[in-house]
Amino acid sequence: MRYLWTVFIMCMGIWGKAQTITVTGRVMEHSSKTPVEFATVWIESVGTGAITDKDGYFRLEQIPCDESKLTVSCLGYAIQELNLRSYKDKPLTIYLKEATLALDEVTVTAKRKTDDATTAYTIDRTVLDHLQSISVADAVSMLPGERTGNTYKLTEAQSIALRGESGSELGNPAFGTAVEIDGVRLSGNAVQRMSGTDLRHIGSSHIESIEVITGVPSVEYGDIANGMVKVKTFQGRTPFLIEAGVRPHTQLYSFSKGFDLGKQRGMLNTSYERARSVSDLASPYTSYTRNALTLKYSNTFLTARRKQIELNANLSGNIGGLNSESDPDAFNNTYQKSHDNAVRGSISALYLANSSWLSSLHAGVSFSYTDRLEEERTRQSMASTHPSIHSMEEGYFVGEKYEDNPNAPITLLPVGYWYQTAFTDSKPLTYNAYLKARWAHRFGQIHNNLLAGAELKGDGNTGEGVYYADRLTTSDWREYRYSTLPFTHNLALYAEDEIKVQFPTSRLNVKFGLRSDMTFIKESEYGTVSSLSPRLNTSYTFAEHQEGWIQGITLRAGWGKAVKLPSFDILYPRTTYRDRLAFAASTTAEGTSYYAYYTHPARLQYNKDLKWQYNIMRELGIDAQFKGVRVSVSFYYNTMKNPYSSSGRTIYTPMNYKFTDPSTLEGCPIPAENRLYRIDRNTGIVTVSDKTGTYPSQQLDYTVMRDWETTSVNFNTSSSTRMGVEWVLDFDRIQILNTSIRIDGKYYRYKGVDEELYQSSSSLHSADGQPYQYVGYYIGGTGNYNGMITRLLNTNLTLTTHIPKIRMIFSLRVEGTFLNSRQNLSEYSGGIRSYVLDSRDSNLPSASGGSIYEGEHYVATYPLYYVSRDDVHTQKPFMETYLWAAEHDTRLYNELSKLVQKSNSGYMFKEWKYSPYFSANLNVTKEIGNHVAVSFYANNFFDTMRKIKSYHTGTDVSLFGSGYVPPFNYGITLKLKL
């Protein structure tokens, strides 16, 4: 058998080698017939290609002779695709046409990548110009079923959430959506919150294309949960481009140029963009400014063996941010500022081996650094002295005047008015290094493309955290430097194989791979954490005919696991401080008060059971080409496992401290104006002395307060599900009208219920004046609902009229929402969590029962268990004890009633649902000769203010200012090519 396998492999190798060809050719400009240098000739199925030389020539060796597509692209030209089998015996001459509106085929919508088994879309420069995008986030509105965003100005943060909606969803889809620009990952892991990447600092006018992967991604992409957005900027020779865009809230100006350095020195692309956006036209002083710069170098070298090496180096960044300092409507000398400075860089080399054992080798390094210094100046006032607590050690501390002891654990803020300037300094840094290789070969009718690679990624933050300009006027604050947190490192190894089988009348494509991530967390109890991410995509194409009603059908399926690494606020829990008032003396005639506090730092709590969040992605799809229409439908069902909690779980532990009531001073003979107070740091005993020495010192009586120590631990919440259907119908152009019709839409459903146990107590005191003695254990938190289900049905109709002769394109997009509903849930797999009340004043469940989802009822949520301070290890069933106490123990009933959480309305669990609503967008682009282009847009140009039905309240609500449709806004852009 061993010899048979050897012979088989040798034969397959000979057979595969016999089926390869060498592809040569030349790329020319269509009108001038001049050679096009630095054009990319690429074969995606093989994972290799070539770059044309100064005379436009290229050469590809060891290329399988099959139905593979050869793609030729160059900045400023329309992409050309050829079938290799049709040109296997002759050199190619490929003519590229300039990408203008004079072409017959121009698209102003997102295009699905039909070569991928997974769901992915491309948005090119023509679409972005027609849309007049000012942010990468704007482009997402072009995806099936998506709507024009309400954030049409840069003064508000802009992020992307693929196949997800609101930030209140478990798993935070925006945090799980990865963004890359020219191969540089924009990571949000090294910040103190879980949120999507703010994209405002990325210039929009120098973007060549955007690729959006919403399906199961390749194993090449890690630290991801919901999808991938890949931004590619200009690369190659371009004329001098000048762009000026104006809209009511935003002005944008940009300059860019792609230089041919000549004599094989390569290409240099430079660009500068300035954008300024104001938050309110009535008071245009609070503004966001973007100054985006890019510098990009590319060149191709030949090795001694005539193999090409493509070198790319880029450096880009932004200087800008938000500023309200000049706003005359704000209080005098108060303002808010925030830097949004960024610098990104990368160097990569692609070795196009095109040999029998290696197709290509790609290596590179990159980094991304962001300066997000926030500054806020506010006006403060105090009628009497007030304590400012900075103690970081356990003990009792008395407030001191700042001028007496600037470093005191507690300082007394001055009386009167002053300004306080607070800073939040965050400087996240991400760096990355990778090496990946492709090997493509053909065995008979089987085409094999193997990818293997390794990646090292690091995340850290060099910021100083929160600090103040003047400690004299600083509020309660403890130093917490982000720069002291250790960097996290992630090493990934991955391998992926793509197999294509050509049958006589059909073809099969199977791509499967495995990614292994090892996360190293220094100085942390988590240590090293490993995870595996298997992924599979497959497609089967059949019934391909040039004529007939059915011209091709592709069935797609995908399954995969995508792991999202945690952010720093999950990995590095802060020390929390609980400050209890231990003593307060009466205010003197000068307005001076004396305070003493007991500070108890809560130790850091690492969760040994913390798991990395991951998404199980499942997808089915069909792409069909019929006579006159192209149809694409994708169904997905994703399960988010172990989502990170947006807030930590509080843990209660009994503790005691001493409290001295001011009434104990009533018998003190020392005059109030001569009293000096001192508190023993360890015992908490307050001593009052006479600064004149007339009276002896006196220790004051105290009360031992039996309280709770609280600390927070980060954890994983319950799983959530997202499912949906996305569809696109592209009809062939109506030639007589030069008009094409596109219908796209999506149905989205989310359900998430948190069944984790949360501890909570009451801020009220017990009848004896002591802190509340009970802690309740609630399913999903103390809110009346612990989950929600949302449903959304959007459909868009786009009419595009393109007249090549006059180089003009007009599009009308009608966006309709036919279903928009949300329902709060209170569920628990082990029983009932919330109960109907007979009235708002009642605390006990209604004797008649009833469902919280039917009718309008006030609802109460009860803990599952509770513990007392005297016995924290015995969890008592709350409902059973509470019902008993209502009949037999009034005191206990009143105390336990403080743990009952009641709703503040009677329709909390009704389905929030609205009648259908619509808006319409108008876009026009006109080219004037070869050098001038003008674009105009008007979003929601009907400025619809009609009322829609709100079914949960039974009233009509206006769409104006509702956020359901974009506000009316418009703009015009002028573009010059010199």
Automatic annotation (TrEMBL):
<dbReference type="InterPro" id="IPR037066">
    <property type="entry name" value="Plug_dom_sf"/>
</dbReference>
<keyword id="KW-0813">Transport</keyword>
<keyword id="KW-0812">Transmembrane</keyword>
<keyword id="KW-0798">TonB box</keyword>
<feature type="domain" description="TonB-dependent receptor-like beta-barrel">
    <location>
        <begin position="297"/>
        <end position="775"/>
    </location>
</feature>
<protein>
    <submittedName>
        <fullName>TonB dependent receptor family protein</fullName>
    </submittedName>
</protein>
<keyword id="KW-1134">Transmembrane beta strand</keyword>
<keyword id="KW-0472">Membrane</keyword>
<dbReference type="GO" id="GO:0009279">
    <property type="term" value="C:cell outer membrane"/>
</dbReference>
<keyword id="KW-0732">Signal</keyword>
<dbReference type="Pfam" id="PF07715">
    <property type="entry name" value="Plug"/>
</dbReference>
<dbReference type="InterPro" id="IPR000531">
    <property type="entry name" value="Beta-barrel_TonB"/>
</dbReference>
<dbReference type="InterPro" id="IPR008969">
    <property type="entry name" value="CarboxyPept-like_regulatory"/>
</dbReference>
<dbReference type="InterPro" id="IPR012910">
    <property type="entry name" value="Plug_dom"/>
</dbReference>
<dbReference type="GO" id="GO:0015344">
    <property type="term" value="F:siderophore uptake transmembrane transporter activity"/>
</dbReference>
<dbReference type="InterPro" id="IPR036942">
    <property type="entry name" value="Beta-barrel_TonB_sf"/>
</dbReference>
<keyword id="KW-0998">Cell outer membrane</keyword>
<feature type="domain" description="TonB-dependent receptor plug">
    <location>
        <begin position="116"/>
        <end position="226"/>
    </location>
</feature>
<comment type="similarity">
    <text>Belongs to the TonB-dependent receptor family.</text>
</comment>
<dbReference type="Pfam" id="PF13715">
    <property type="entry name" value="CarbopepD_reg_2"/>
</dbReference>
<dbReference type="GO" id="GO:0044718">
    <property type="term" value="P:siderophore transmembrane transport"/>
</dbReference>
<dbReference type="InterPro" id="IPR039426">
    <property type="entry name" value="TonB-dep_rcpt-like"/>
</dbReference>
<keyword id="KW-0675">Receptor</keyword>
<dbReference type="Pfam" id="PF00593">
    <property type="entry name" value="TonB_dep_Rec_b-barrel"/>
</dbReference>
